[in-house]
C-alpha cells in the first residue's frame, strides 16, 4: 500500500525533479472514484476497473492544466502550488460528496479470512492488497528497465536537454510519468477505501509516511521505495505492538502506557533520521 | 389620569423589548472528516429540538449558531473565542471530544458563558477542575464503562483485553472499567485517536487469546475496528464488549456484522417515555434512520436550556446553571437528576444490537445495570 503511493511519488519527485505534495489528494481521488463507481455500478470489481483509467486521465489533465507550467519554477513555488492543490481538492470533495466519510463494503468473496499459518487466519482482502502491490512493483520494473518507453524515461531523467536534443518529446514523456504516478496513488486509494474510511483529506497522513519512505529508499529509486516501504511498515507495526511491552519492563505501567504509543508513532521518523545519518542519500540512491 | 395612561403606555413599551428577549446558542460539534456523521446527527437533533420548541426556549427567542471544530483542539479554541467575543452567545453547547472540551472549557466558563456538554465528560471537569458554569447533559466518561465492567464481572468474564484511543476519554474509559471489573486485564492498548487500520493490534490480540475484548472506539474508528475484526475472523478468538462504538452511527454501515454485540449506555431508542418516543419517531421520519445517543444528548441539551430559561427567566450563566444543578430536567432519559458537580445521576442500561421490525439494525435494552448511578469524582469538586 505504502509502496504504491511512494512509488508514484518517487517517480514524480526523482525522475521529474518536481516537488509535488498533492499526492495524498490523488490517493483520495482514487478512493472516491472507486467508491462512487462501485455504488453506481453495484459491482466492486467493475468500480475499480473503471476507476483506474479515470485516475490516469485525472493525472493527465492535472499535468496539462497546472503542473507543466511549474517545471521551470523553483522548488518553493512548486511546494506552494501543490499545497494549494491539496486544499483545493479537499474542498472540492467536501462540496461534491459532503463532509461525512463514505464507507465501502467488500464483496463477500474478498471479505473473509484465510488460514495461512495454523492459528493465524489473515483477511483475504489484505492478501489482495499485497498482491496488487507486488504486481505494480513488477510492472513498474518491467516498464522502466525492459521497454523503450522506460529507456526514454531514464534518459529524460539523467539529462533532459540531451534527450530532447536527440528528438525525445520530453513534455509528453513527463505527462505520461506524472499520470502513472497519479494512477498508482489512485490504486492505493482504492485499496485503502474498503479497509478504512473514504473522507476528505484522507491522503495527508499517508503523504508524510510516503515521503519518509522515498527519503529512506533514496529519492527517484523505485526499488528503494519498495524496500523502504516494507521496512517502514515493519518498524511502524512492530513498534506499535512491542514498544509498550519493552517500556513496561523498565518503568511502571502508567508511564509506559503513556510513553509507549507516543514513542511508537515517532519511531518511523527516528528510523529515518538514523538512515540519513548513516547514508545521507538514502539506502538505494539512483545512479548518476 | 392622562399621566397614568401615559405611564402605563411607556412601561408597556419598555416591557415589550424585554418580552422579546432572545438567547443565542453556539453549538460546537464535528461536521467534517471521519467523525462528521456524529456531528451531523447532533445538528439534526438540535434542529429537531428547535422545531419542537418553535424556536422559542423558555419564552426567549432562540437562535443557534453551528460551528465545525474538525476534531482539532486548536480549531475548537478559536471557534469558542469567536462565539464568545464576536457572536456574543449566551450558551456554548455540544463538544463531542474530551480533549476538545478540555481545550475550550477554561475560556468559556471564565467569560461567564454557560458551557453544556452534549457528549464529552472528562474526569478532571467532574472533579478538581469542575466549574459552576459548566453543566453536563451526557455523562462522566467513567460511568458507561463502569456499567460494562459491572456486567462483565457479574457474567464471570475471566480475562479482558482493552483497546481505546490514546487521549483523555480513552484513559477514563479504562479507569471506569477497572473500577468494577476485577478480573485479569491481559493488556491495555492505547491506539492513536483517529486510527483507521487496526491490523497490527488485531494480530497482537489474536496471539494473546483473551476471553473478552473491551473496546472504546467512537465514530469512524469503531466502524473500521469492527469491520476489520470481522474480516480477520476474530469472533472465534474473543468475545467483543463495547462502549460508544456500536450505535446508530456505526450500525447503518456495519449492519449484520455487529448484530448481537453488547454495549452499555444511558440511552437507547427504545427507552420508554413520552419525550423519547416523540424524539425518535420524528427524527426517523425527518432524517431517515435511527438517532444515536449523540443526537439524544444534543436534543436534551436544548431541552435543558429551555428548562433553565423557563425556570430562571434569565440568560445569565450562573442563573441557568443554578436551575440545572437542581435537577428535574425533562429529557429523553426521563427526569434527569443532577449531582453536586453538575453531572447527571442516571440509570445505565445494557444494550444489544438487534434488527427492528423493518430489518433495520438498532439497539435494544436488555437489562438495567445501574439504577441512579453517580460518577466517582463528585467528592473532589468544590465550586
Our measurement of the CA-to-CA distance between the termini of chain A, rounded to an integer number of angstroms, reads 29 Å
The best one-word shape of chain A is globular
How much of the polypeptide of chain A forms β-strand, as a percent range?
A: under 5%
Task: Please estimate the helix content of chain B.
Answer: 40-55%
The rough form of chain B would be described as globular
Task: Report the radius of gyration of chain B as a whole number of Å.
Answer: 22 Å
CATH class of the largest domain in chain B: Alpha Beta
In spatial order, strands of the major sheet of chain A run 1-2
Ranges of chain B with pLDDT <50 over ≥5 residues? none
Uncertain runs of chain A:
none
Helix/strand/pairing class of chain B, anyone?
A: alpha/beta
Secondary-structure arrangement, i.e. CATH architecture of the largest domain in chain B? 3-Layer(aba) Sandwich
Rounded Rg of chain A: 20 Å
Task: Report, as a whole number of angstroms, the end-to-end distance of chain B.
Answer: 53 Å
Reconstruct the topology from this structure:
The complex is a heterodimer of chains A (288) and B (383).
Chain A: H1 2-15, H2 23-41, H3 44-65, H4 75-97, E1 113-117, E2 120-123, H5 124-146, H6 148-158, H7 160-165, H8 170-195, H9 204-217, H10 222-250, H11 253-278
Antiparallel strand pairs in A: 1-2
Chain B: H1 2-19, E1 22-29, H2 36-52, E2 56-57, E3 60-68, H3 73-85, E4 91-94, H4 98-110, E5 114-117, H5 123-126, E6 134-136, H6 143-154, E7 159-165, H7 168-180, E8 184-191, H8 199-208, E9 212-216, H9 220-231, E10 239-243, H10 251-254, E11 262-265, H11 274-287, H12 293-312, H13 317-325, E12 329-331, E13 334-338, E14 344-355, E15 361-373
Parallel strand pairs in B: 1-3, 1-4, 4-5, 5-6, 7-8, 7-9, 9-10, 10-11
Antiparallel strand pairs in B: 2-3, 11-14, 12-13, 13-14, 14-15
Helix pairs in contact in B: 2-11, 2-12, 3-4, 6-7, 12-13
Amino acid at each position: 500500500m505504502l509502496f504504491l503511493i511512494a512509488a508514484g511519488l518517487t517517480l514524480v519527485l526523482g525522475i521529474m525533479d518536481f516537488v509535488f505534495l498533492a499526492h495524498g489528494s490523488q490517493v483520495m481521488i482514487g478512493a472516491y472514484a472507486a467508491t462512487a463507481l462501485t455504488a453506481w455500478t453495484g459491482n466492486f470489481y467493475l468500480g475499480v476497473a473503471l476507476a483506474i483509467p479515470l485516475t490516469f486521465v485525472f493525472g493527465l489533465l492535472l499535468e496539462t492544466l497546472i503542473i507543466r507550467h511549474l517545471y521551470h519554477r523553483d522548488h518553493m513555488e512548486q511546494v506552494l502550488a501543490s499545497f494549494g492543490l491539496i486544499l483545493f481538492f479537499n474542498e472540492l470533495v467536501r462540496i461534491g460528496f459532503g463532509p461525512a466519510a463514505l464507507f465501502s463494503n467488500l464483496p463477500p468473496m474478498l471479505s473473509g479470512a484465510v488460514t495461512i499459518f495454523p492459528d493465524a487466519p489473515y483477511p483475504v482482502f489484505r492478501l489482495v492488497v499485497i498482491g496488487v502491490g507486488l504486481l505494480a512493483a513488477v510492472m513498474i520494473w518491467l516498464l522502466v528497465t525492459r521497454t523503450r518507453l522506460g529507456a526514454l524515461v531514464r534518459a529524460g531523467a539523467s539529462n533532459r536537454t540531451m534527450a530532447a536534443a536527440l528528438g525525445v518529446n520530453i513534455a509528453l514523456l513527463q505527462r505520461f510519468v506524472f499520470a502513472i504516478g497519479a494512477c498508482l496513488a489512485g490504486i492505493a486509494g482504492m485499496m485503502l477505501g474498503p479497509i478504512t474510511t473514504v473522507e476528505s483529506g484522507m491522503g495527508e497522513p499517508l503523504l508524510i509516511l510516503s515521503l519518509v519512505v522515498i527519503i529512506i529508499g533514496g529519492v527517484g529509486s523505485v526499488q528503494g521505495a519498495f524496500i523502504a516501504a516494507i521496512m517502514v511498515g515493519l518498524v511502524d507495526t512492530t513498534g506499535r505492538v512491542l514498544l509498550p511491552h519493552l517500556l513496561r519492563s523498565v518503568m511502571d505501567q502508567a508511564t509506559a502506557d503513556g510513553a509507549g504509543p507516543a514513542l511508537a508513532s515517532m519511531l518511523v521518523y527516528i528510523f529515518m533520521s538514523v538512515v540519513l545519518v548513516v547514508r545521507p542519500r538514502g539506502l538505494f540512491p539512483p545512479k548518476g | 389620569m392622562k399621566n397614568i395612561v401615559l405611564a402605563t403606555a411607556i412601561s408597556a413599551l419598555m416591557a415589550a423589548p424585554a418580552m422579546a428577549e432572545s438567547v443565542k446558542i453556539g453549538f460546537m460539534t464535528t461536521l467534517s472528516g471521519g467523525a462528521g456523521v456524529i456531528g451531523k446527527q447532533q445538528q439534526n437533533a438540535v434542529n429537531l429540538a428547535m422545531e419542537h420548541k418553535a424556536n422559542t426556549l423558555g419564552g426567549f427567542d432562540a437562535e443557534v449558531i453551528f460551528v465545525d471544530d474538525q476534531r482539532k483542539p486548536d480549531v475548537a479554541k478559536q471557534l469558542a473565542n469567536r462565539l464568545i467575543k464576536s457572536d456574543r452567545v449566551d450558551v456554548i453547547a455540544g463538544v463531542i471530544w474530551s480533549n476538545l472540551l478540555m481545550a475550550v472549557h477554561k475560556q468559556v466558563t471564565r467569560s461567564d458563558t454557560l458551557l453544556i456538554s452534549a457528549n464529552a465528560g472528562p474526569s478532571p471537569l467532574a472533579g478538581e477542575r469542575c466549574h459552576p458554569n459548566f453543566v453536563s447533559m451526557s455523562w462522566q466518561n467513567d460511568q458507561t464503562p463502569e456499567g460494562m465492567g459491572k456486567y462483565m464481572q457479574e457474567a464471570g468474564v475471566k480475562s479482558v483485553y482493552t483497546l481505546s484511543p490514546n487521549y483523555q476519554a480513552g484513559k477514563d474509559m479504562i479507569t471506569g472499567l477497572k473500577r468494577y471489573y476485577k478480573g485479569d486485564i491481559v493488556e491495555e492498548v492505547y491506539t492513536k485517536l483517529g486510527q483507521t487500520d487496526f491490523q497490527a493490534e488485531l494480530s497482537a490480540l489474536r496471539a494473546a487469546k483473551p476471553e473478552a475484548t473491551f473496546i472504546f472506539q467512537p465514530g469512524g474508528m469503531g466502524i473500521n475496528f469492527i469491520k476489520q475484526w470481522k474480516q480477520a475472523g476474530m469472533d472465534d478468538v474473543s468475545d467483543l464488549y463495547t462502549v460508544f462504538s456500536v450505535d446508530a452511527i456505526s450500525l447503518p454501515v456495519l449492519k449484520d456484522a455487529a448484530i448481537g454485540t453488547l454495549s452499555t449506555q444511558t440511552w437507547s431508542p427504545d427507552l420508554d417515555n413520552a419525550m423519547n418516543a416523540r424524539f425518535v419517531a420524528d427524527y426517523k421520519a425527518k432524517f431517515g434512520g435511527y438517532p444515536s445517543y449523540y443526537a439524544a444528548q444534543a436534543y436534551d441539551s436544548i431541552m435543558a436550556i429551555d428548562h433553565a430559561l423557563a425556570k430562571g427567566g434569565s440568560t445569565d450563566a450562573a442563573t441557568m446553571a443554578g436551575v440545572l444543578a437542581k435537577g428535574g430536567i425533562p429529557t429523553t432519559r426521563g427526569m434527569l437528576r443532577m449531582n453536586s458537580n453538575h453531572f447527571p445521576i442516571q440509570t445505565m442500561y445494557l444494550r444489544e444490537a438487534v434488527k427492528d421490525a423493518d430489518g433495520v439494525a438498532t439497539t435494544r435494552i436488555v437489562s438495567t445495570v445501574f439504577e441512579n448511578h453517580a460518577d466517582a469524582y463528585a467528592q473532589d469538586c468544590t465550586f
